[in-house]
Write a structure and sequence with these properties.
Length: 278
C-alpha cells in the first residue's frame, strides 16, 4: 500500500529561494498548534525542551498540523538516542537537537536518526506511526530520505566548534539560540548585546560558507531583519505562549489600566449608581 510522505524541512529549504519564517508552539495544545498551522507561516517548532509537551501531546500536534501546508520541526528535550527514537517513531520527520557543543555529539545524533548499519536507531516500524505501521512501502530502506536533522548552537563552546559541527555529514542544518548563548557568554538575558550579536553573525557566516542552512531565534523585528540580512535561511519570529501573554496584557492595559487613568471622577457615588438590568 502506498502512502504519501511529506517533504522534510531539508527538502523545503533546498527548494526555496527565500528565508523560511516560523514560530514556536509551546502550549502543548493541538488546537493552538492547528491555529498556528493555518497562519500562512512556513514552519512551526514544536518544543519539548521548554514546554509541557510529552510524546502524546507532540503526537496530537503533529496530527493536527498535518492537514496544513506548513513544516513541523520538533525540538527534543535532550540529545538522547532513546528520546530521538520515540519521537521519530511517532512520526516526527524533522528534529532539532539542543545544546550540541561539538562534532562528536553531532555525529552521535546523526547515528540516532539512522537505522543500522549507518546508525543505531531501534527498529520498530511495524509499531510506528512513522511507517504508518508498515503501510509505507520500503520505509526501512528509505527512512533516511524522510528525516531531517538540525542541531542547535547555543554555547560559547559550540560557537568555537561551529565549523566542525556544520561539516558533519548527516547534519542538515544548524539553529542558533541567542538566549542560552548570551547566558554562556556571561550575559544572561542580553540577547542583543554586541558580543552575542557578533557571535551569532560569526556562526551565520561560517555555516553559510560551508553550504549548510542556518537558522536563528529572533523575536524582535529589528533583530530578525538583521540576521536575515546576514544570511539566515530560517528564523523563528514568535511563540504561541508569548503572543497570548503580550496580547492579553495589551487588552488589560487598554481596557482597564488606561481607562482608569483617563476616566473622569464619577458624579454619582458608587453605592448610589443605578443598577444595570439584563
Amino acid at each position: 500500500m502506498s502512502f504519501r510522505v511529506d517533504p522534510t524541512f531539508r527538502d523545503t529549504l533546498a527548494a526555496t529561494d527565500r528565508p523560511q519564517i516560523g514560530m514556536w508552539v509551546c502550549s502543548g495544545s493541538a488546537l493552538v498548534a492547528e491555529i498556528c498551522a493555518g497562519s500562512g507561516l512556513d514552519w512551526l517548532l514544536i518544543d519539548t525542551e521548554h514546554s509541557p509537551n510529552g510524546l502524546e501531546s507532540t503526537l496530537s500536534q503533529l496530527q493536527a498540523v498535518a492537514a496544513y501546508p506548513i513544516v513541523p520541526l520538533v525540538r527534543v528535550p535532550i540529545g538522547d538516542r532513546v528520546i530521538v527514537k520515540q519521537l521519530l517513531d511517532l512520526g516526527a520527520q524533522n528534529l532539532l537537537i539542543p545544546m550540541v557543543d561539538d562534532a562528536e555529539h553531532a555525529r552521535e545524533m546523526v547515528a540516532a536518526v539512522r537505522y543500522p548499519p549507518l546508525g543505531v536507531r531501534g527498529v520498530g516500524s511495524a509499531l510506528a506511526r512513522a511507517a504508518r505501521w508498515n503501510r509505507i512501502d520500503g520505509y526501512l530502506a528509505n527512512a533516511d530520505d524522510t528525516i531531517s536533522l538540525f542541531v542547535q548552537i547555543e554555547t560559547a563552546l559550540a560557537v568555537q566548534n561551529v565549523a566542525s559541527i556544520a561539516a558533519v555529514d548527516g547534519v542538515d542544518g544548524l539553529f542558533i539560540g541567542p538566549s542560552d548563548l548570551a547566558a554562556s557568554l556571561g550575559l544572561l538575558g542580553q540577547q542583543d548585546h554586541p558580543d552575542v550579536v557578533a557571535a551569532v553573525e560569526h556562526c551565520i557566516r561560517t555555516i553559510v560558507a560551508l553550504g549548510k542552512p542556518v537558522g536563528v531565534n529572533a523575536f524582535a523585528p529589528k533583530t530578525a531583519e538583521r540576521y536575515l540580512a546576514a544570511g539566515a535561511n530560517f528564523v523563528l519570529v514568535g511563540a504561541d505562549v508569548a503572543i497570548l501573554a503580550r496580547s492579553s496584557e495589551a487588552l488589560a492595559q487598554r481596557y482597564i489600566h488606561d481607562r482608569a487613568v483617563s476616566a473622569p471622577a464619577s458624579a454619582t457615588p458608587p453605592d448610589q449608581a443605578p443598577r444595570a438590568s439584563y
